[in-house]
Fold this protein.
Amino acid sequence: MATVTTASGANLSSMKVEVPGMSEQTAAPKQPWSIQDSERLFGIREWGDGYFAVNGEGHLVVMPERDPKRQIDLHEVIEGLREREIGTPVIIRLRDLLKHRLTEIREAFDNAIKEHQYTGSYCCVYPIKVNQQRQLCEEVRDYGSALGFGLEAGSKPELLAVLGLTENLPNMPVVCNGFKDSEFIETVILATKLGRHIIPVVERFTDLELIVHHAKRYGVRPRIGIRAKPSSQGSGRWESSGGMRSKFGLTVSEMLHALEFLKKHDMADCLNMIHFHIGSQVGDIRNIKAAVNELAHIYVELKKLGAGLDTIDVGGGMGIDYDGSQSDSPSSVNYGVAEYAADIVYRIKSVCDTAELPHPRILSESGRAMVAHSSLLIVDVLGKTNFPSDPDMPALKKLMKEEKQKPQPIIELVDAFEMLDQPKVNLVEVYHDAVQARDEAMSLFNLGYMSLRMRASAERLFWAIGRKVLALATAKGELPDDLIDLPQVLSDIYYVNFSVFQSLPDHWAIDQLFPICPIHRLNEEPIRRAILADITCDSDGQVDKFCDKRTTSKPVLELHELNYNNGDHKPQPYYLGMFLLGAYQEVLGDLHNLYGDTHVVHVSFDDSPGVGDWDLDEVVEGDTVKEVLSYVQYDHEDLIKSMRRDIERAVKAGTMSVGDGQSLLKFYDQGMEGYTYLE
């Protein structure tokens, strides 16, 4: 099967607009397209989890509290930002949605505790590694404080950030994971002396030795956690981060040794928490239940041996449904928040009741589930490329007359194209014939036996046959196996103003799927199939796997035809939303091609009288060119001086006028202060 590639860095201003009448890639629907059709096509109801829907104008709306009466129109927000000279790409953080997610987790565990008559308490801890952006962490802290939640630090810089964030919050739990040196441990011990509720987790036995050393030095009785290496593992992409071969944690024999070490130093009562982690985004609830059951048994055995345990930290792993399939696929989960909470509470209670021990406090580090829904990225489409599907038969016949010898592959392609108009045509057979004729035409050209104009005609005929075959096959229903790759082969390339490496690093690195769909025109049928190319010069800078609740993924995204003004090569604004990005994407992004952080706006629902149902609470401007250059040790003032010297040399040599030189220098200077993305 042929594949289609395009050179990166294509000239966007010269993109072909497809011939009218040949643009449909899917069969026309029997009924007029509706917003419900768009919701089904893009799976909005499924991955949206009640937070997203389409309004009567065909705009995507956010319902931050799952209340249809309280909606924020995303297209209206983007238009409002444009009026304020805040362009795309832009991340929108939804404060009300974040608060609702935290509250939902709290209520799920509260209900489970009540239902199962559990006598212990619950606390959700936010690992700031999931997204360390200050504004987001402050919101989690503020909302979480009222819910009895805490924070987690996994490194020395994160610990210092968390200690600063929790000023005057002595009761907020702070869990410390990750590698620790003496300075890290000493900081934890001093923070304990300050009155903070801080729990260092022993990942290696040397951590415990340092904790005991500094605790005695400062006269502190610390709360100590210990990470177990359970035999149970998670599921999905990160399952290898749990189990006996996991990076962190102590085996059972090492935990027994640790308890004896603490007894020797009269600190067994300081071992208050047992912790584990079986992987991020665990898709199958059965893996969670098995691991929690094992951890609970380790807890009761250590407690019987004299440990002062009163807390079980079940770690991270609660996933979210990225693709809407509600399955155990890597991009989904087969459970919800309520089921997750109920299973954890029930498993721990059952084991403790059997052992006749009090129910411990439960901690979870559900960072992804807490923040993923609350951030989304809006990008604009710059243009597109596509393959011509009009064979232009009159022009082709004229060219054929001019040829001394008519190429046989061209004759076969013409026959294949005309055969598609016959009733009961075998579409697969016709397509196979077209592929063979196309390949023969390329061979003849490479051997010097076919003109360039004939090769162009062969390509044009092949694309026309492919589109017609796809349209006829789609109208009949499911595509035959031999045509299953045809949508991708014939797909358009939509050029989008963003960097995959900065904004969707998990898609590029590990094939993580994120929901993507237009935020407007959803009352129109999307008749194009496309992949998305970013504006970096890297061939990997594209999105060619999309969420599909029926299969693992689909290779193309259904989009609308771009609209152009007369004589204008730039399309009218067409916006796409990329959703569930609140976890990891901002902090993992890199500076490929020196595309920096995007603008970020914090938006909340506003039901007071006035224009619109949203408030722009805060704007965090994206990186300027000057700032990203400084990240890689360039001094923008030195660069401007170098450019000025070069301009003066050109003026002296007579190759540039003074006015032109000043215009270039002004443009260069202003460019340093500008957005790294296209404006």
In short: Residues 1-29 have pLDDT under 50 and may be disordered.
